[in-house]
């Protein structure tokens, strides 16, 4: 009897939900049972602010150690939480189709973020979101926020906070039940989100069995891979951590890849933004599990094209003074 594949995941309700979705799809693709293996990450036990913890992969480190130690066969991550540099011995073997990449504002009565009154309390643990909120409405007061989705919603429902900012994709994966609260979706053109937001990453070892790599590759979505490669290339070229005040969004329509990127001052007082559109050629044959593709040399490879575009966008931002706004936190 063929052994079950072991899929490592964080223990939060959201992590378990999205990992189960991947496990179900992989079981069909591989024709094998897939079992979840809950693992505790640094971000789950360290209650410091995410801005204090920095862009060090605090939600990934424990999982990756377990994968390298052979305690599981693959991992599922929220891609936005991953540092842009892949550790030795591991690869992102697939990025399934992306969910909604937008942020949403959750309130008790549906008041838009821009109309919240002076002194209203808005919670988020993201420096980017802090800067974006203050640019949209400088009258509110920001509160650092940790905890799972349910606890964040509860703080609004019980009146401890007037609003929280959450990822639309996470709410969708948990079923979308807000328990009577209201959601205001924030358009990506004026409110770009974290690189890779809405996307999942399936990670495994470089030396994983070929049948596992082949099965995981069936879950890879080329359009998603191209988009997130461009976004993460901006972040890596800026040399910024994954919790830096940087918003990016890339969208592939037909063969046109458009990427928007904005760097914010932490207090929201300044922003530097740019965008670029390039043509890419989808369908180029490439080896499964080749990571973000930043080192690919063939100009026909859409992944390499996306990576170079992200680098170009980042250089434009740096030329306009972005280095003065972004904390330099080289991601390991």
Describe this entry's structure for a reader:
It is a single chain. With 332 residues, the chain is an alpha/beta fold. The chain folds into two domains: 226 residues, D-Maltodextrin-Binding Protein, domain 2 (3-Layer(aba) Sandwich); 83 residues, D-Maltodextrin-Binding Protein, domain 2. It has ten helices and 13 strands. The strands form three sheets. The chain has a five-stranded mixed β-sheet with strand order 2-1-3-10-4, sandwiched between helices. A five-stranded mixed β-sheet has the order 7-6-8-5-9, sandwiched between helices. α9 runs parallel beside α10. The longest helix has 18 residues. About 6% of the residues have low confidence.
Summarize the structure.
Helices cover 31% and strands 22% of the residues. It has 10 helices and 13 strands. About 6% of the residues have low confidence.
- What's the number of domains? 2
So how many helices? 10
CATH topology of the largest domain: D-Maltodextrin-Binding Protein, domain 2
- Give the spatial strand order of the biggest sheet: 2-1-3-10-4
* H/E series: EHEHHHEEEEHEHEHEEHHEEEH
In the CATH scheme, the class of the largest domain would be Alpha Beta
Which structural class matches the secondary elements?
Answer: alpha/beta
Distance between the termini: 40 Å
Biggest pleated-sheet summary: 5 strands, mixed
Full CATH superfamily name of the largest domain: Periplasmic binding protein-like II
């Amino acid at each position: 009897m063929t052994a079950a594949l072991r899929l490592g995941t964080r223990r939060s309700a959201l992590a378990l939900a999205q990992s189960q979705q991947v496990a179900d799809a992989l079981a069909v693709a591989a024709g094998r049972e897939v079992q979840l293996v809950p693992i505790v990450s640094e971000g789950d036990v360290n209650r410091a602010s995410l801005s204090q913890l920095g862009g060090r992969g605090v939600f990934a480190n424990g999982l990756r150690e377990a994968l390298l130690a052979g305690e599981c066969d693959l991992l599922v991550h929220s891609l936005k939480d991953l540092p842009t540099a892949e550790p030795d011995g591991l690869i992102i073997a697939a990025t399934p189709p992306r969910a909604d990449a937008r942020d949403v504002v959750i309130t008790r009565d549906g008041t838009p973020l821009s109309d919240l009154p002076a002194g209203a309390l808005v919670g988020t643990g993201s420096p980017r979101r802090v800067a974006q909120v203050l640019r949209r409405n400088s009258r509110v007061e920001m509160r650092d926020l940790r905890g799972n989705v349910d606890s964040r919603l509860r703080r609004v429902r019980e009146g401890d906070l007037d609003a929280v900012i959450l990822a639309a994709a996470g709410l969708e994966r948990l079923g979308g039940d807000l328990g009577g609260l209201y959601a205001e979706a924030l358009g990506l053109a004026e409110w770009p989100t974290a690189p890779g937001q809405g996307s999942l990453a399936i990670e495994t070892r470089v030396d994983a069995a070929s049948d596992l790599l082949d099965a995981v590759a069936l879950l890879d979505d080329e359009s998603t891979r191209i988009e997130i490669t461009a976004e993460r290339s901006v972040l890596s070229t800026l040399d910024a951590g994954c919790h830096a005040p940087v918003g990016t969004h890339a969208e592939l329509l037909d063969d046109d890849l458009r990427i928007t990127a904005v760097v914010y001052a932490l207090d929201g007082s300044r922003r530097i933004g740019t965008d670029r559109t390039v043509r890419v050629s989808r369908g180029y044959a490439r080896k499964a599990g080749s990571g973000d593709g930043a080192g690919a040399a063939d100009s026909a490879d859409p992944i390499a094209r996306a990576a170079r575009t992200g680098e170009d966008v980042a250089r434009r931002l740096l030329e306009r003074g972005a280095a003065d706004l972004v904390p330099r936190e080289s991601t390991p």
